[in-house]
Queue: 4 jobs
Job 1
Amino acid sequence: MLLDPGMDLTLRPMRYPLFYEMYRSAIKNTWTVDEVDFTSDVADIRDKLSEAERHLIKRLVAFFATGDSIVSNNLVLNLYKHINAPEARMYLSRQLYEEALHVQFYLTLLDTYLPNEEERVAAFTAIENIPSIKYKGEFCFRWIESINDLSSLQTRQDRQRFLLNLVCFACCIEGLFFFAAFAYVYFLRSKGLLHGLASGTNWVFRDESCHMNFAFSVIDQVRAEEPDLFDDEMRKNIIKMMDEAVECEMVFSKDVLGLGIAGLSERDMRSYLEYVADQRLAVLGIAPVYHSKNPFPFMELQDVQELTNFFERRVAAYQVGVTGEVSFNEDF
Ligand SMILES: [Fe+2]
Ligand SMILES: [Fe+2]
């Protein structure tokens, strides 16, 4: 079984071809940070952003500064260790590379947006110094550490604890904290601002969606192999964890929107988070808890733009392969 302890190295016969297919399609989605053009963002920040929007973006980049590194750490310390199939570990290796790419993307973003060195250093230490970001960080660390003592998944209880960690990273961190961050980015794009950030975010968004899908496939597989792991207690724990994540993100939201942004209220943000939380629960076969609607039409557009982006992307990838130095501009 997938969570049986060990270091399975047998790719043939392959037990989980789906994970191998996910690995292969992730390879086809390769992009590079050099393709993102931040030129118009710098002018937007200087000339167009209001004081309140500038505060929003400052907080957002400070969150981005460490978010993907946290996910990478959990991947290495927990997921890679316990998901025992070589084809699944191939996918996780690819995900680890994508997380590094995201870290590189946000590093470049911070270097561009914050030319002042002191501000830059402050952004990278936000996880210690800015309470709303520290709070989210503590939530993540608590869940990373929750299975520190598990060297192998021997008992039913061990496996349930591991699954909670997996669900947390897919549904609460990649699936909620990051999606809230994307919502701020796409809100700004809907006002014609920061297109460089939005174009890079399109690719990060797609990667994160794939990471979630992989985690959900692992969960489906484990569930098929060991259905008794998903008992009422497990469901209750997931709902509680999801609710904590929503409240955690709302603390950040209050800070980010603190100066008041026209067209983006705390109430809308809460509805959006609850709507996303219900969606994540639905994938896990858990009935909706919040019954909230998506208040953000610009997030519904995202799927359509993903498709457009995909076709443009093929052209860009081909061009990069030929010349090695084509810069890629998007214009939605
Ligand atoms: Fe990421
Ligand atoms: Fe991710």
Note: The radius of gyration is 20 Å.
Job 2
Amino acid sequence: MGKNGMGRYTVGLDIGGTKILGALLDPEGEVVATVRRSTVHGAEGLVSGAAEAVRDVAASGGVEVTALAGVGLGIPGIVDHRSGTVKHAVNLGVHDDELPLAELLSARVGGVPVVVENDLNVAAVGAAHVLERAADRAGRAERADRAGGGAADGAADGAADGSREHEDLAFLALGTGLASGLVLDGELRRGASGAAGEIGHIPVDPLGPECPCGQRGCLERFASGKALEAAWPARHGKPSPVELFEAARAGDQEAVVVRDRFADAVASAVRLLVLTTDVRHVVLGGGVAQLGTELLDVVQDALREQAKVSAFLGSLRLAERVRLAPTHVPVAAVGAAVLGRRG
Ligand SMILES: [Zn+2]
């Protein structure tokens, strides 16, 4: 197979505090190679590590770096996507007032355009891309079935009714903190000051605990990895969410209470996102979501319970909108690669 169309291949990197995940997307938007390496802290380590990750993943897919159409980066920290600069990415050891990351990385990868975006936004774009493609495939298979196993009307795939319905979602990151990325009607919503989706700091309990942000009773104090750790400190060397859910499953009543309270808080976050944006899907991601279906089940139960008192809430079918982030591909790196196409 020729790679003549490789001008439309892009690479995306999801740069975290401990690791860099990379993905190479082909012109059809399919993931053709992935890479994982350790993060080197500090500005120089960050740029050279990112450049090596781009080279590695392109090489695994048999594509020349200089033939890439673009590179996208997702990074925790304050990102200016217009200038490609990053400020205070403290857990990457970047304390510069302003690091021109896009420009520095582009110079190391043969002048390929680089775009930089915050980590939640790339995760939301990646989840939308992966779900949309899965739905396209399912739709194609269904149409092929209806056509009696004959050739499906390929040209009309997905676009037949003009809908890209899966590109309307909130990616709810249950990490150390709580925040979301929003893709609304296919467009990334950053907000006037880049704060769209920062729902972790919506106060939900005026008498609740103080939050480092200065307010009191923020949702993050109830629905985040940190909140879980405080409520159920790990005692057996496993992550606190894992120990909590194990104990609850084993019938520990105290654990059941803590787990259900947590599920209720996450359900409140889902309800909040749907009531403000009416997104079609809310995708649960972040470290706590590694619990998988066990987490999804309790959150959906909590949503159904909350809806019992309100026909209005019930009509919104909140439980059916929630799903887990895909785990077969690095979604944030995929999202970065999708944004790299637009660079
Ligand atoms: Zn707060």
Note: The two ends are 26 Å apart (CA to CA).
Job 3
Amino acid sequence: MAVPKRKTSKSKRDMRRSHHKAEVLSLGTCSHCGQPKKPHFICPSCGYYKNKEIVKVSGE
Ligand SMILES: [Zn+2]
């Protein structure tokens, strides 16, 4: 099995981990109900996408 020749320095380890962060949430608003929703996803609160009802949301 291949094994690293050198211990990764704290600097290199931390440089690698500098990308380990939570993704920034990008949210749009639904044009039908105005609730926040993910772009290119159907609206979770009303089930609309492109001004058309795609799925029925229970408890509306
Ligand atoms: Zn909606």
Note: DSSP finds one helix and four strands in the chain.
Job 4
Amino acid sequence: MSSGDARKKNAVEKLFALVDCNNFYASCERVFNPALRHKPVVVLSNNDGCVIARSEEAKALGIRMGVPAFEIESLLTAHGVAVFSSNYALYGDFSSRVMATLAALVPSMEIYSIDEAFLDLTGISPEGAEALAQRIRKTVLKHTGIPVGIGVAPTKTLAKIANHLAKKNKMPVCLLKGEEEITEVLQQTPVGEVWGIGRQYSAKLTARGIITAYDLSRAPEEWVRREMTVTGLRTRQELCGISCLALEEAVPARQAICTSRSFGKPQGEPGPLEEAIATFATMCAAKLRRGKSAATQMMVFIHTNAFRTDQPQYARNRVITLATPTNDSILLVKAAVEALRAIYRPGYLYKKAGVIVTGLVPEGEVQQDLFSSAETGKHRKLMESLDEVNRRYGRQTLQVATQGTTRKWRLRQEKLSPGYTTRWSDLMEIRLT
Ligand SMILES: [Mg+2]
């Protein structure tokens, strides 16, 4: 069977959507601050260093991604650009809201990053999928205030490309379907922009005359397997419309809690990374306990700074299904550190890490695992005292030992917006007179 035949066969079988929040951090800053609507907004990296998110108006001013704030200070002042430090508590909370909204609209999804999710739309006709995508966009905007762009295509790799296309053409939804249309788009997509093709492969492919995504989809299968391993071959097949990558979330995620941070200083050593991941896991656990829920799955992710083109790049995540749904800090820290150890590689400078817990179930519904019930009982009492102490004396007064004390990964935040949704003292006040 040729790739073309396979594509036709597959096209009726699979359909994926990639939902990506537009200018996510900048959009979050706007939700509770309507005065910022139609105004340029930028969000700075940790330590208020570089621009990491821009509203459309800020992009129109020519502010580039990754530019150091001090270099454009006069431009920022001249145009009255609203400048914010990264407020990850706010972004994490909005991420959870967006993901929960998506989870309620489709039977299965995969949380891919803080502001992206893959949805499985298999079984829906192209017209139906387009209408559903429009409805998803409207619902997310209404429930959370966050605008999203959606790419729909027969494979995850093509859905990523469809999403880029939507963004480029400033369309909310882009459906990529039909051999001719896909071919045309692939011919216009540089191979380096294909999901999963890193800088190294990109340089290597270009040197061999494989310039566009289309060229890669036409490259001989044997050659691709030899030069780029089976991972590269999967990418090639996916470009041909043959779905090789399934959703990584088998269990439908009903809700999610995400805790992630960029580090004040990039971290290469495993120690500070473990402390950070452990801290994120305890923060997720505390949020779970506050909501009287327990998590079924956990995802841990780490990545290097994509803007440092002079440094080797690495990004991985690991999804762990927990033996029993839990909100126990000790168990969640243990799982998170295990996941981190599985994906951590030395020789890279990590910029960001995070923990996302998904598949939330009510605490009371959790079936106790017979073999761990004694331990679980002890832990529960410990967690209750931990929460009580931290409630009385402030967050992070009592910690799990893995969280450490060096805090090398901490960040500087001088222009932080309020924790509108996560801190009682920062709640908005509305006066009615
Ligand atoms: Mg985005």
Note: The domain at 256-403 is CATH 3.30.1490.100 (Dna Ligase; domain 1).
